[in-house]
Amino acid sequence: MQIAIVLYPGMTALDAIGPYEVLRWVPDSRIRFVGQEIGPIIADSGVLALGVTHTFEETPAPDIVLVPGGVPLAVAADATLHAWLRKIDETTTWTTSVCSGATILAAAGLLDGRPATTHWMAQSGLAALGAKAMRDQRVVHDGKYVTAAGVSAGIDMALWLLGEIAGQERAETAQLLMEYDPKPPFDAGHPSKVSDAFRRKAMVEIARYGADSAGAGMLVAETIAVPKLLWQQTIRRIRARWSK
What we know:
This protein is α/β, with parallel strands linked by helices.
């Protein structure tokens, strides 16, 4: 089973690496990190590099595709990536995303009318792009489409997916060997668990953190990328209608 994990500059590393640690337990799996060109990309921290092992052209028919979040504007509106996703989606067994990676799937037209989730800061953008945003859901599956909320939810999604593919015992074995037994020292991992004042303060801190941070990248996606993506999506639908 070929598993393609998309990499791009400015992505959030754990969105890809968390699920990778689980999905490598899929029996007879062949995982490749795919992107525009072979070589390193720099994650949203600006200091961590990950390596693209195969190009999109070299990966025409993966069984599973996973799109991580981060979503700088240039990637969210990348027509080449959208076209590749639409093409491989014709034959994938599972099409998945983590965090704001769902907005890339939505921008490609793959989540039109489908229930899906994403990071809490990208929910309105996801809805604007045609998906049915499930704002309080950590993992949402609709047929072969599986989306996970912010960052750490990707591990949960991958464990569920491993269970569907190889059975619960295999998934539990992977969970045990990873010692994935989270007990965070604080209980502030979702907007429903904090006050409005705290959330507003966190948004200010995210903006101060820098334009290259994951949170700031999602703010850009909300305020700049989404209008551009809506234009692209509308034009794509018009072109598709007139080509029939």
